[in-house]
Amino acid sequence: MKEVSTRQMILILILSAVGLKFLFLPSIVSLVCKQNGYIAIFVGMLVDFLILGIFVYLLKKNPDLNFKQILEQIFGKAFSKIILILYALLFLVKAASSFQSHYLFLYESLYEELKWYVFTFCGMFVMFIVCTKRLRVFARLIEVIFFIVLFFIIISFALGATVADFSEIFPILENGIKDVIGIKDFSIWFGDYIVMVILFGNVKISKNFSKKVFLLIALTIVLVSLSYMVYYCLYANTAIIQKNSIANIVEIIPYSSDFRRVSWIIVLLWLFALFSEACLMIYCAMTCMSFAFGAENKIPALLISFIFILIAIFIFDFNIAAIIQVNIKYLSYFAMVIQYLIPVLMLIFSFRIKRAEVKT
Amino acid sequence: MKILKRYNYLIILCIFSIIFFPKAVGLEAQGDSEAIVMAVGVDKVEQDFEVTIQVLLPSPGNQYKQEINTISAKADNVAEAINQLALRIGKRIGIAHCKVFVVSDSTKDENLVSIIDYMLRSKINTNNIVLINTPESSKEFLKTSKDLENSLYFAVNNNAYNKTYIDSVFISLDKFVGEYLSPASCSIVDTISLGDAKDLGVFGFSSSSSGGSTSSTSSSSSGSGDSGGGEQSQKVINNKGEGCIYKKGKKILDLSPDQTKKLNMLIPENKRGYLYIENVNDDLYKNSTVVLEMDLKKVNKKLSFNDGVPKITFKLRLFVKIKELEQNEIGEKQLESDNTYLTKALKEKTQEKIKEDSREIFNLIKSNNLDTLKVYSSFYKFKNKEFKKYLKTLENKEEYLQGIDFDVEVEVSER
Fold first, then answer.
1. Tell me: the pLDDT tens digits for A207-226?
2. Backbone angles phi, psi at A207, to 5 degrees
3. Which of A29, A42, A201, B382 has its CA 20 to 30 A from that of B352?
4. DSSP per residue over A205-270, as a string?
5. Distance from CA of A183 to the nearest CA of B (A)
6. Do A121 and B19 touch (CB under 8 A)?
7. pTM for the structure as a whole
8. ipTM reported for the complex, 2 dp
9. How confident is the model at residue B210 (pLDDT cuts 50, 70, 90)?
10. If you ran DSSP here, which 8-state letter would residue B168 be given?
């Protein structure tokens, strides 16, 4: 049974694309790409857009097959299992990163007294409730909060744009491609559309499906890049110290103090968005694990996910610098293989199979 | 399992209550564990840093005024001094509400960024903290400003409100760091000094009489005049519109109010203010001094290269209206508000004055090698290749301002 509408699918894709991009990423990208950070983000998201094209092609070609079935069709059973485990691992890394970022953001912006174990226990409990629901319920949850979050993101960046000095983006690509190539180290923050693994076989394909998906995702890419541009124009040389970018943007706007007081709304809504993303990643990891081991019951997979997050917490102790370093140094190539190479291989092999079918 | 599914939200609520309720009940008030710092001041005393904080120590029954205290501590660095202050007060030092950071001239040989580093690393919004320089000690400055009537916050808030005016300087810690990290590494910082209330003609500041405070008399008070009268000699905050220029984190040059105003004329952010045009003569004005109110100013920079020599032309467009006319005889013609007051002679005099002022500033920044007008950034952003070529021709790239031609064009329009 198809559980998700085209609209819900698009919202899930947008949420995963936006999720962690407005938290620590603008600040750390500024260190590598300086004022060209927004171009780097645009390039990164454009690559993701191409990968989305592959997924949409595969989805339309096999509307009734789930991800496991498509993989088995292309790579065979043994390889599929390995690929699914790798996907699950990547989702777990992203979920852990998202969960830890969520805690840090909450800790730094609203609640300094918050103990990590209280947050972890409560967070995991709510995650447990959310992730054991069916995909349809999860999609509805995202549908409910999505537009409120979107509204406040647009408002905060639009207001930021009123005081930003747009001359800060110059000179554009002073050293050519070198200025943006550094974005490859941040690949773990990209590859957002691999969340399609939970959507294969579950989407009701509507009229003009591809057109709707590509148009809205393209719009998201443009908006995210513009928001980055506003961010760099607002903070310029000090972007690196503005770790909580989304929350700080409202604080920098020199409007009345009454307006500043609503910054907590943006913080709160962003926390919802981050939490939804963490849940989404765990949901994807669970799905991949269930596919890989052929398990109907998703609870063991969910518990494994929680154990993974707990291990990550014990190792990194919510140290964002350490998390970023590991993500950049050790996981960027792993992420590139899973996010980009495998979908490309899927496309190539599916063409070969098609050609072989035609020949026979 | 069925019960778990049916009452899942109730169960969540119960679990949350079990976790949070005991903690919430036993939680001490934040005011008991944290001191609310309103302002921080730093002085250099011999080899040590003396950090002074203006802190709100809430105690029931007292009035707001009595709760502001200034406390100082000396240590090798700012963090250690703040730690000592925390020990003294018996509370954590909370700087989330800090609005002012004062540095005295005693720190002028130190890199200011390393002094404010403690603030930058705190998880607070340093964009809201105003940076002030004072020729006196920061300690004295904060002590003087602790009384509500004599409050630093009035001066600073006013300053924040007036940050678009040409006779004031406003810079936050974030902006200072941003400018420090820019290629020019130059910033203009507000200088506020203390003045004698009696000399300044400021009356009514009586720290010991108002509010019945017992502990708020500032240490800078001198003499023993009557309370509330003009006899008392007491220090007050005196913002004369002075400024100073920092380069690479160190204070290089003091600016007089006049220089600050002239410099601000060339800065786009400072859009408002008054212009005093003397000796205007034509049909309408007879040897007059005309006060013009400028409520909008646009500054564009035109960048060009002539035979490899960079030239920057500041194009100023001022929108003014007449605010006051000083003339021996004022007739109906001059009083008529609809009259076209911006005569050719007045326009020319205004242009002439601003050009002259600007030339003075160009000489000042050139002779001191202080790029407060962001000349480097402008060329680097918009004439990147040519400017790099120009820099290559220089023996000392730090002195890039010397070879740049400055010019100014002024257009004056009626508002």
1. 899 999 999 999 999 999 99
2. -65, 145
3. B382
4. --TTHHHHHHHHHHHHHHHHHHHHHHHHHHHGGGGGG--SHHHHHHHHS-S-HHHHTTHHHHHHHH
5. 22
6. yes
7. 0.86
8. 0.82
9. very low
10. -
